[in-house]
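Let us work through a complete example step by step.
Step 1: write down the sequence.
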Amino acid sequence: MEDNTLIHYENVEIRIDENIILHDVNFELNKGEFLYIIGKVGSGKSSLLKTIYCEMPLSQGDGYVFEYELNKIKRKQIPYLRRQIGIVFQDFQLLIDRSVKDNLEFVLKATGWKDKLNIENRINEVMEQVGMENKGYKFPNELSGGEQQRIVIARALLNSPKIILADEPTGNLDPETSKKILQLLHDICDRGTSVIMSTHNYQIVSMFPGKVKKCHNGTFSDVEM
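Step 2: predict the structure and record it as tokens.
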């Protein structure tokens, strides 16, 4: 893989049990690129993202993420791969029994951060980046859906990942809030972090430019927008 290439998939097939979810998956993701994966619910978008962070195996073909060959990656290497990837889920997955700041601190401590000042500074940086600098004391249930998704994006940014994977990040949000979240993800991409975003909302894709791939009936193909 070239230095600029973060992900390279060649003739990849993804199965769940005996069912082929996607076949002939071929794509590359380079530094600073924004890639949309579009398709209906159940078309394989989430399964494809799960292979990138080793939640699901490749059943055939070759996949490389950073310097790791997915078919040969050792279990002990997976945490190091995942530390370079920020994941944004549709359903937020915030810890509801603690404040926003404590949610972010929990992630940093779990990934090896120890110095209190460094932890506080990093939390302040990502909160500012997502426009939530005054909301650290709040609990998730005190925030709107859009605000919760901003916190999820802040959480994904904590360890300065090379790639953000956003799985239907606007799926539960109204159109105006969705547009703001999309703008935020593009701003992050403009700063050099590559973004892969899955969505079934074709309208969103036309708002902000990016490369587009489509999951449809087990295939994975280019789309001209």
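Step 3: interpret the result. The longest helix spans residues 175-190.
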